[in-house]
Design a protein that fits this description.
- The protein is mostly helical.
- It is built from 23 helices and no strands.
- It has three domains: about 140 residues, no CATH class; about 60 residues; about 250 residues, MetI-like fold (Orthogonal Bundle).
- The chain is about 85% helix and about 0% strand.
- The longest helix has about 35 residues.
- The radius of gyration is 36 Å and the shape is flat.
- The two termini are about 70 Å apart.
- The N terminus is likely disordered.
């Protein structure tokens, strides 16, 4: 009885081990598709040691990028393709390329000038003018230059074998490196494939054909261009059709003309709303006595970030007042406040809506990417077409540039709320409104505040750019300093913009507790 009891588990373990080994062998065969016995041995060898295991894959070294791309490891394949292409360029240039072609072209140009100067010298000698010495020195200088360039060309032609040798050594080193790390990388991809079946196994006909075509095209085009420059001009100059550009320009202009003509009421309504908010803020910041505004800002900083930050805010306000930037700083804050307030009022609800609707967020994400990546001077063009120049156009431009962070970070914060916390609130009978106001928004508030801060900072960064289309304030002083190279005015106004940013940052972020 005891012997049977002891033997049975051992037999079961042995059977399980054999089943696992057989199943793994089948998985390896499904993954590699070619030469499975070799890869079973290599994967077992690599997996048995936590350190890097030196292996050798001859086919990976021979085929290089084609092997890696065919196996689905495109990042490594493209990297090695670049390296091998550089080495191949050096080999072909050294053996067959005209290394001194540029030097001989320079000599040909100088010889044309030299022939002209020789004719002028001969004419001057014939007429016995006072420019004989000038032309003679010029001719001698050009002849010396030709001699130096010719010597340089001859030296370059003699370096071809060395360049080819260096390229050949580099190519062998790249091939050896690929052969050494290929099995390790493939084993790692195999491990990832075991946990994620969505990963492509590689060695499919599509991968093989694509990798071969891509590698051959890139290699041939690059080597031909750099080794034999000018042999095929179409490798350098894109076959542009100017008629397409002119037609596209006409379509864009017709589209904007149509929008301006038919959307006048819509754009006027937006302008009126922006102007109403802007006039109210300018009345508060600019028309109110300076001591009231300064006291209010210092007190608000104290309540939000503590006494030390309020002391700094007072010093910054004193700087702007003593140097004569007070009114323009307040105008800048009014312009910034209008853009930031409208961006926040629109952005936070939009982020809350997108946080639970993946499809809608996937739709507007490219639009926000466009708003952030497009240069400000480009989207100022349609803004001017729709809203003209002035402060409303500056506010719209600022909103386009700085309005996206609050949406993104609101979505990020709400999606980061732990699901078990939400489930607990729901299980205790929490309504959707309770879930939003008492669970989601409080837990997401650090991210939302960071989004508000980023929107304000990016809006402030547009102060100088917005001054180009009629926005007043500190940006106007910086713009004048750029136009007239007034270094002092530009630096002092720039510090005022910096201090406005620091005050707003302290008020919004608080003590970050």
């Amino acid at each position: 009885m005891n012997e049977q009891t002891l033997d049975t588990p051992a037999g079961m373990v042995s059977d399980d081990s054999e089943n696992f080994s057989a199943e793994r062998e089948q998985l390896v065969e499904r993954f590699v598709k070619t030469n499975p016995d070799y890869y079973r041995h290599q994967f077992a060898k690599i997996g048995s040691d936590s350190k890097f295991v030196w292996t050798k894959n001859i086919w990976a070294g021979i085929l290089g990028p084609i092997w890696f791309c065919a196996r689905g490891m495109w990042n490594w394949g493209l990297t090695f393709l670049i390296l091998e292409t550089l080495a191949a360029v050096q080999i072909v240039r050294g053996l067959f390329g005209d290394l001194a072609s540029e030097a001989w072209e320079r000599i040909a140009k100088i010889e044309g000038t030299l022939e002209l100067r020789r004719q002028q010298l001969a004419s001057a000698i014939e007429n016995n003018t006072d420019k004989i010495d000038v032309y003679r020195r010029t001719v001698e200088s050009l002849e010396d230059a030709i001699g130096g360039i010719r010597l340089e060309a001859e030296q370059l032609e003699g370096t071809g074998l060395m360049i080819a040798t260096v390229g050949f050594i580099a190519l062998l080193a790249f091939k050896a490196g690929q052969a050494v790390i290929a099995n390790t990388l493939l084993e790692k991809r195999f491990s990832d494939w075991l946990s994620d079946s969505g990963i492509s196994t590689g060695m499919t006909p599509r991968h093989i054909a694509l990798s071969c075509c891509f590698t051959v095209v890139i290699l041939m085009a690059t080597v031909t261009h750099y080794s034999f420059p000018g042999l095929y001009p179409w490798l350098i100059q894109f076959p542009t059709e100017h008629g397409i550009r002119l037609t596209s320009i006409g379509w864009v202009e017709d589209f904007f003309a149509f929008c301006v003509t038919n959307g006048e009421a819509f754009f006027d309504a937006i302008t009126y709303a922006i102007r109403a908010v802007l006039d109210a803020l300018e009345l508060i910041f600019v028309e109110t006595p300076w001591m009231v505004i300064a006291s209010f800002i210092i007190l608000l900083t104290w309540l939000s970030a503590g006494p030390r930050a309020s002391v700094y805010s007072g010093a910054f306000l004193l700087y702007m007042g003593l140097l004569g930037f007070w009114e323009k700083a307040m105008t800048t804050l009014a312009l910034l406040g209008t853009a930031a307030c409208l961006s926040i009022v629109i952005g936070i609800p939009l982020g809350m809506y997108c946080a639970r609707r993946e499809r809608f967020y996937a739709f507007i994400r490219p639009i926000m990417d466009f708003m952030q990546t497009m240069p400000a001077f480009v989207f100022m063009i349609p803004v001017i077409a729709f809203f003209g120049t002035g402060k409303p156009a500056a506010v719209v431009t600022t909103m386009i540039f700085g309005g996206t962070p609050v949406v993104r970070l609101t979505v990020l914060g709400l999606r980061g709320v732990p699901e078990h916390v939400r489930e607990a609130a729901i299980s205790f009978g929490g309504s959707k409104w309770y879930l939003l106001t008492r669970v989601d928004l409080p837990l997401a508030s650090p991210s939302i505040r960071a989004g508000i801060n980023q929107t304000i900072m990016l809006s402030l960064a547009m102060v100088v750019v917005a001054s180009l289309i009629g926005a007043k304030g500190l940006g106007e002083d910086v713009l004048e300093a750029l136009q007239y190279a007034n270094v002092g005015q530009g630096i002092l106004a720039g510090f005022s913009i910096l201090f406005c940013a620091m005050i707003l940052d302290r008020i919004v972020q608080g003590e970050r507790k």
